[in-house]
Structures are given as C-alpha cells and as structure tokens.
Specification:
single chain; alpha+beta; 9-stranded mixed β-sheet; 11 helices; 21% helix
C-alpha cells in the first residue's frame, strides 16, 4: 500500500458531517494447480480500492472507487454525500454511529510463504499430484494451492483507526476413479481444510500425507455398494458438519435475513425474532458459538468491517436459541443484541450480516465411544452436494464417502451416501457430540449472499456428531 495513502484518506474524510468512514481493502492472491502431472497456468491478482460512508441529517450514503488520487477520493466523497442527502428522512435508521474504534489484528504466521519460492511451491504440488496417480483406474487427479492476503484499514472522522492483516491458505487434492461405467471422486475435505496462517496451514490436516489415502478411497468407492435407504443413526465427520452448520444454523440465524432483506436472492428463514430466548433449536447437547477470535480459523478477525470489536458469543446454548447473527445496523433495526459480523467481500461492497467463525462446541465422547454405542448406522465424510429450501428449513446433503456402522464398529464402505431432514427436528435428534480431540477447525471459502453478490470466507469448527432417526439413502435407484 502506498506510504502516503493513509494521510490522503484521512485528509479526504469530511469533518462537517455527523459521521464518516473510509475503508481501504487490498487483496493479493496466488492460485496454483498441477493436474495429471501438468503445471496449470499460474494466476495471481492485486486489487485495491476504498469505500467512503457518510451519515448526515438522518441519511446515509456510500461510494467506492479504485482511483486513489486526491481527485478520485474527493469524487467518491461527493457521491457518498449526495446519497446521504437523498436518503435523509427516508431510511429505517436515522442515528449516525458514534464510535471511533482503534486497534490492530494480524493472522498468526509460523512459516511465511514469503520464505518459499514459486518453484518450491510448484514442486510441492507436483509431488502431491504424482502421489494421487496410483492406479490406471484413477482417470483424473489434481493438487492445488490458493493463497489470499488481505490488508484493510478503517478510518473514521473522529480519529478511529483499525488495521487488519489477514493471511489465508486453501489447499486442495482430488482423485477421480472410473471403472465399468461408474465414476467416483474423493477430495481433501472439499476445501474445508483451509485456514489462516502461513505454510503451517498445510500441516494442520496432514496435507503432505493425504494423497495416497484419497486415491485409495476413490478406488474403494468403485467396489462399494450403494448406500442403503433407511431411517437410522447418522454420524457426521467434522468436514461434513461444516456444511450442516453453515446451511441449517448459520444462514437461518442471519438477522438481516430474518428481517426480510435477503428474500429476493437466497430465501428467508424459518427463524423469527420472537424465538430468541425460548426456542429449542436442538437437543441439550447443542452449543453453538460465534467466535472470530479463534486463532487460525478461516474467518478470524479483530473487528468487523463496521469497526465493531470481535467477541465470542453463544448463539445456541444447551439447545436453546439465544442470539442472532446481526451486526450493528441490524441490531439497531431489530432492537436486539447481535455480534460483530458486519462484513464485506471487498472494497466495492457494503458490509452486510455474514457468518464468520461459527462453531459447534465439543462434548465429552471420543470417536470410539460414539461408535461403540451404535448398533446400526452410517458414518459420512466430506460434502459433495447440498440443497436447502428458501426458509433454510428442509435440506438434503450428499457426501463423498460413507461407511456402515455395525455393532459399534465401522465396517463396509458405501458410495453415494445422502441424508435429508428438517433443521429443527434434525438438531433435536443430536444424541452425541465428540470431544476436544475430534474438534476440527475448518472453513468454507465460497459463501455467497447479497445483491450485488458477495462471496466471503467463513470459518466452521466441529467435532464428530451423532444424530438419531435420520433418513439416509443412496444416490442411485
């Protein structure tokens, strides 16, 4: 970022309005992939811009620009002021923000990627790609690595200053097997095994050791029977719990969605404002926290994009719904407590209510103890497909890899395992929660929401979880 840019931004902030902010965001990215032994074109990017927001006479307006000259900044301020004048007296909210936060946040980095060369990073992927091609029946395979560095600076007209430096790493592995008209794929967590940090992120979930197992499991699926259709016990691995949490807890609890703002694009929510404090969302074993302070989780931060300090809060405690995912604006609209989750995907989008790190807290069962109490069931890993209705209530998920549970042990592999349910009854059937040893910190790098669309990184963490009386079925007739 240019050294004189902060001074230029500070000078551009109007001081004759009720409140004004400027948010600068710079994204630097690199995407590498080796597929079937061939290094794919390396892509990289650098994107920098600012957004000004102005509150004046009960109205508010914003404008974004990538022109960071004095003239470009002045034009963006003028546009934001013009919109503030147009909306004066017409908005749902009339009170301007009064806080001027100060602070810093930086992702922890044990081993910076700056210490490696591009050739070394490609060599790593070439090696992992080769380890996926273990059999002639593996017909497609690839190893990939994406890195995204985001530096942001939030300044307010009252002297506030928040600087944050986020470093994200998103590795991938995939093996696709084919034989006798059947095709099956296995991946490295379907992008769930991502996080904040440096090269050490690859070590958290055993990236360097995963390729042979992934290839072997793809081959196992070719010989496996189709998942049976029955109502039974279901155990979900943490990398499938990611999507279960995301779709049937995270999105339904977004306060702007509850207030009706999201219905045009991705539906509403079965949750209503009067449910908080009394509604039984799940069994007494269900504890869900919003926690952007978890070190290394994909959506950790010190402040949201409105400058609200990040804090850990229970959304669901002992199964009872406590708090929505609502930032400062939604909290004021609904007159409800919320969380610091006002987030934007870039400099050219306004912050809206988003998930950040949304976690199912661990229980007290080891994985072996959980399985030991099950006479019949199915264990499923890694999401491959998902569908949920417009109110985030009825859902159906498909997984890459399944195994039968018989008399307390994992037995036969099954292919195309799927399950379906209704959010409230599904979570109320939670009968076992894994302990801290199986608690896995992961993420979702592609959560979409909003008009115009915004795609953000979301963190999720969970142990293994056991659900009773779930309808499971195979993906083939």
């Amino acid at each position: 970022m240019p050294q004189d840019l902060e001074a230029r931004l500070r000078a551009a902030l109007p001081d004759d309005v009720d409140h004004a902010t400027v948010r600068l965001v710079e994204d630097r990215s690199e995407h590498l992939q080796v597929r079937q032994g061939v290094v794919q074109p390396v892509t990289s990017g650098n994107d920098l811009g600012v957004m000004f927001t102005v509150w004046e006479h009960g109205g508010s307006g914003y404008a974004a620009t990538s022109d960071i000259t004095e003239a470009g900044l002045a034009e963006a301020v003028a546009v934001a002021r013009r919109w503030a004048a147009i909306t004066a007296g017409r908005g749902l909210l009339t009170d301007a923000p009064s806080s001027h936060p100060t602070g810093e946040f930086a992702s922890p980095e044990e081993r910076s990627w700056a210490d490696t060369t591009l050739a070394e990073r490609i060599e790593l992927l070439v090696e992992q790609d080769a380890r996926l091609s273990v059999d002639d029946r593996i017909v497609d395979w690839a190893a990939g690595l994406s890195r995204v560095d985001t530096d942001s600076l939030l300044l307010t007209s009252g002297g506030g200053r928040v600087e944050q430096r986020i470093r994200r790493v998103l590795p991938s592995l995939r093996a696709t097997a084919h034989a006798d008209g059947l095709t099956q794929s296995r991946t490295y967590g379907a992008h769930a095994f991502s996080g904040q940090g440096g090269a050490e992120v690859l070590d958290r979930h055993g990236f360097n050791d995963a390729a042979p197992r992934i290839a072997e499991q793809a081959l196992q699926l070719l010989a496996a029977d189709n998942c049976p259709t029955e109502t039974t016990n279901l155990v979900l691995a943490p990398d499938q719990m990611v999507l279960q949490i995301h779709e049937s807890i995270g999105h339904p609890l977004e306060l702007d969605r509850i207030l009706g703002d999201e219905r045009n694009f991705a539906g509403t929510s079965f949750v209503t404002a009067d449910m908080f404090g009394t509604f039984r969302y799940g069994s007494e074993l269900l504890d869900v926290t919003f926690d952007p302070t978890v070190e290394g989780e994909l959506a950790s931060y010190g402040f949201d994009d409105d400058g609200t300090p990040a804090e850990r809060h229970h959304l669901i405690r002992d199964g009872i719904l406590e708090r929505p995912l609502g930032g400062a604006v939604s909290q004021q609209r609904a007159d409800m407590p919320g969380v610091a989750n006002s987030r934007a995907c870039s400099w050219n989008r306004p912050p809206i209510d988003r998930m950040a790190n949304l976690n199912v807290e661990p229980g007290d069962l080891s994985f072996e103890e959980m399985l030991g109490g099950i006479e019949r069931g199915v264990y499923m890993q890694t999401n491959v497909s998902w569908s949920i209705d417009d109110s985030r209530n009825k859902f159906q998920f498909g997984c890459e890899y399944g195994q039968l549970i018989e008399d307390g042990e994992l037995t036969s592999v099954v292919r195309n395992p799927n399950y379906r349910g209704i959010s409230r009854s599904f979570w109320r059937n939670l009968v076992g929660v894994g302990d801290a040893e199986s608690f896995t910190v992961m993420g979702v790098p592609n959560c979409g929401k909003g008009e115009p669309s915004q795609v953000v990184n979301v963190g999720h963490a969970s142990p293994h979880c056991h659900f009773a009386d779930v309808e499971v079925f195979g993906g083939e007739s």
